[in-house]
Amino acid sequence: MTRLAYIALFLVGLIAIVYALMSAGSGKASDNRLEAFARGEIEKLDFSKAGTPAASSPFYRQDGTPVTLQAYQGKVVLVNFWATWCAPCEKEMPSLGALQTARGGDRFEVVAISVDSEEDRDYAAQRLGELGASNITFHIATPEQYEIVYDSGAQGFPTTILYDEAGLEIARLAGDADWSSIEAVGFIDALLKD
């Protein structure tokens, strides 16, 4: 009797494995060709909000001048919400600086928006340079001016959102990543080919 129970258990397991493999193989392919490039360091990219327009809420340059994401239309933009008190934010900042060096220009730009407090504005600007990202223009959205954070749907820090030339979301990533990795640079190159 025990022998039959083992055989039955084995057959049930085998059927479950075959079913799982067939189900995985018959899944619907994604309509978004860019998802194929979301590998390695950026495999956590979320495409579920693709096509959503960029928030129109202002954020601010270091001198207090307001700016919106609409000012960047015509470029692919990587928006990164970060803070000096956020260890993962600081960890990824050097790679964002490297990505800006490698691909920044007329068609692509990294836009880093600090969510530090108003009294830490100058420190955050200084820290951006210390973290190897002095080539990224400093912007801030203090807690009193968080509309851009809320309207963009950032739920934690760091949050990175990519927008196309028309100001429509491509994808987002919650958490840190190495944006200078071969996968991330390849993803940006794929965006710029369009």
TrEMBL record:
Residues 48-193 form the Thioredoxin domain. It comes from the Bacteria. GO terms for cellular component: cell envelope. One of its GO terms (molecular function) is disulfide oxidoreductase activity. Its main location: other. Keywords: Cytochrome c-type biogenesis, Redox-active center. The keyword Metal-binding does not apply. The keyword Lipoprotein does not apply. GO terms for biological process: cytochrome complex assembly. SUPFAM superfamilies: Thioredoxin-like. It is found in: Cell envelope. Pfam families: Redoxin (PF08534). This is Thioredoxin domain-containing protein.
